[in-house]
Amino acid sequence: MREVGVERRMRVCVVFGTRPEIIKTAPVILELRRRPTVFETLAVCTGQHREMAGPYLEMFGLEPDVNMEIMQARQSLDSIVSKTIDRFGPVVEEFRPDVVVVQGDTSSAFSAALTAAQHKIAVAHVEAGLRTYSLANPFPEEMNRQLIGRLAALHFAPTNRAAENLLGERVAREAICVTGNTGIDALFEVLQSKGKKVEVVDPAGLGQEHQRLLCVTMHRRESLGEPLRNALAAFREICDRYPDVRIVFPVHLNPEVRQVVQSELGADPRISLIDPLPYDQFVGLLNRCHFVLTDSGGIQEEAPSLGKPVLVLRENTERPEAIEAGTARLVGTETAKIVGAASILLDNEDEYNLMAKAQNPFGDGTAARRIGDALWAWHCKRT
Ligand code: UD1
Ligand code: UDP
Questions:
Q1: Residues 48-106 pLDDT 10s
Q2: How many CB atoms lie under 10 A from the CB of residue 11?
Q3: Per-residue confidence at 222, pLDDT binned at 50, 70, 90?
Q4: Same domain, yes or no: 33 and 162
Q5: 29 shares its domain with 99
Q6: What is the mean pLDDT of residues 361-370?
Q7: What residues flank ligand 2, with Cβ below 6 Å?
Q8: Same domain membership, residue 349 and residue 216
Q9: Which listed residue, of 85, 87, 142, 162, carries a Cα 20 to 30 Å from 364's Cα?
Q10: Atom number of ligand 2 nearest to Cα 56
């Protein structure tokens, strides 16, 4: 790649702030910073997650240039959106980036994209084109990513299917670049630097060698209330039916999740409720477990790389690639359905082996490099 004078460098502002945004933008920021003669990079943290951000920033050695500190306890969507717009506007005015990069589908990512668009600054969307086409599931993420898709000038789609979704929405082919998911770059980075033997805290919760360990996470807004309670009942029932099963559940810091999980499962000695794990330790847990039950988006992408089946505790998924590859199964949140699906994996070795394939439809660990190349090519065309 040719070098340029300082005045021709591309000014890129990358926005992040929740746990998965940090994990998935870190490879992009680090890649851009490896090319300082070409990119001037401003790392802007929304602060949508506060305590949950620290260990992830630290692990990737990311120091935000700006922290907008928008988080408040039990924050509403309105508060996330209005604070992000209020605080990001002046950042954009001062830095005058050539492009604002947002990732995924959080309310702060949408708000940052809207702010950039209002300031007539181009938006680039990492993890573009994921769709369920049901605005209520997941909520508000489906709405956010569709809106970002309308605003973006550049769409970094993780898969061909995501690119097809965008083409179906009449996004110009030349505005789409299929890159793989940057989350897989992060996963490969951890696996390469630490190997698959990443240490997991709370060894007591991991049970004995002969015990089968299930990894559970749940945090989505549409899961709160009855769906979450139904799933928690299913976890207890799975432990009742299978005495050799232990569950490790790193519980999201959302108080609306924590209170219910603690009151329903806190007294159960077979279920270990722990704080969110730093990323490398969570990868260790994924690698150590028998299979995963989750409503998370990112975990649906990571587990297939480690050959771990995923039971998706949601009504739909924007990541059908894993279902089609046979590594994930859409189970929903009814107690009986969750217990039934888990029982199949626990009873039937053939069924388990069919799902436990180490193959990843979401990327090959080179997404950030492709994004860097595409950003620069786009900039060169314009200047
Ligand atoms: C947010 C995103 C969701 C993403 C998820 C990743 C929105 C609306 N939601 O959901 O798309 O999948 O992050 O984890 O953008 N809290 C803390 N400390 C923290 C983080 C959260 O105390 O470090 C508590 C706060 O009370 C906060 C609440 O959790 O108000 C919910 O956080 P919020 O970011 O609004 O929603 P998430 O469910 O984390
Ligand atoms: N994760 C983690 N520690 C945990 C739970 C999850 O590091 O205790 C990672 C996980 O590996 C994935 C990301 O957080 O990369 C997923 O975040 P989350 O489920 O909160 O958000 P989603 O992907 O659903 O938007």
A1: 999 999 999 999 999 999 999 999 999 999 999 999 999 999 999 999 999 999 999 99
A2: 16
A3: very high
A4: yes
A5: yes
A6: 95
A7: 19-20, 23, 183, 217, 219, 250, 276-277, 279, 282, 296-299, 302
A8: yes
A9: 142
A10: 7
